[in-house]
Amino acid sequence: MLFVLILPITLLTMTIINKPKIKQLSNKTDRILAIIALVTILAAWVIGTTLSEGDVYPSLQIAFPEADRFEPINGSGFTAIQSQPEETTLGYVALATANGYGGPMKLAVGVDLEGNIHGLAIVQQKETSSWMIKVLGTDFIESLTGKSYMDDFQLNEDVDGVTGATYTSRGIADAALLGSRAVAGKYLGLDIPVKEALAIQFGIPEITLIGLFAIGFIGHKKKFKYTKQARWASMLIGMIVLGFIYTRPLTLSDINKFLLGFWPAWQTNLYWYLLIGGMLLVFTVDNKNPYCEWFCPFGAAQECMGAIGGAKARSVGRNKNMLLWVQRGLAWLAIVLALLFRNPGLTSFEVFGTLFDLNGSGFQFAILGIVLVASLFIRRPWCTYLCPIRPVTDIYRTFRKWILESWKRITTKKAA
Amino acid sequence: MEKNNNKKSRISEIGIVILVLVCALLVMAEMTTNLVKEVNTQDTQVVNTQILPTLMPLPTYPPDYNTPEPRFDS
Predict the structure, then answer these.
(1) pTM
(2) Residue of B16, B42, B64 with shortest CB distance to A72
């Protein structure tokens, strides 16, 4: 909560500092503030890792409700025991971790003496709440109980996935599989099937993304004649395919996952690697933002609205700096809180899913409404004033420039 | 004429600032709501299609805080 109070104070201070004379912050000030932002983000990351996790015992009870006692075994699982009328081992509970969309999900997996799943409890998860609610609104978790350690737990094969929450349901199924096989192999002495290598998922979203990066790369060339047409084509493809069909725009949650080190299996999350890796690569090599201007689905949606209403870039006069720092402050706050709570999607306030999937809170629908109406008259109002991706790219650019300048100075000195 | 244009552009500037600040407040409200939810659910368990607000008192297992928490990682 402290951060929520700090933000307005910081913004107010920045406004007072910048208001009278300085229209543009100097490089030096920019760099100092970039360092402060980086240090606070790092501090949040460190504090987040040291926060203790909750007690797991209640989850054991949920995974095996008939048991009245749980005994740890070799530090790697629990025996579920019923004491009355006589002491009986009912089964075992393993804590298993697999990756969902927002990062690792930990499940308590109760397994009976035949190796079948008896009960499941989510101990810890970092999913976007709307997706988790979607999963919990179905009988997905119940559908896993009774499954054997010999089953494959493959979505849409022997397990029905949840449409619109594929990664979350896959994470739960993966953790259930890992837990059941751990119990079967370690405590029940059963032969567990050899784990097959993960199949690489390479489909329309990945192909589209590579194609859009290629169009952006070619379109940026000065000699290219059809830049305007290529950009519109790229934006429309991005909006339709990555937005409306697959709902996979770049969000702050993706950046937070990267910062938190919640890097998912590349075979099943190739899209994420292509998006983050592609942006980092192009930025580092070319100092260009290939995503935002060329194929961000929400940017394209705003430009479509703008084309209808005749939107143009509008001046905000001396308020420019204040609005810039509002945008940066919000992005900073969202990142710091996500790292502090080690939950990438916690403060991801974008309204992309609200538009493309009609999924969001009342606040998000209100923001979306304002932004879409404003898009009729102002060019890309979300991107210009609110999107948290822009401050992230700004800070990256600042450090990139600084490093390059320092490197140049060093090499020039050496040459002299 | 010039005065009119200046007035129009000033109104447009103020309009944009108000819109952005309203959106920023909504964003803060959204973040605060999510944060409160996160803090409230940290001590609850999400399970079997419901979020249990409190957990029943557990009878006989004495939590052993000295034993490292067991886990199987993927």
Answers:
(1) 0.77
(2) B64
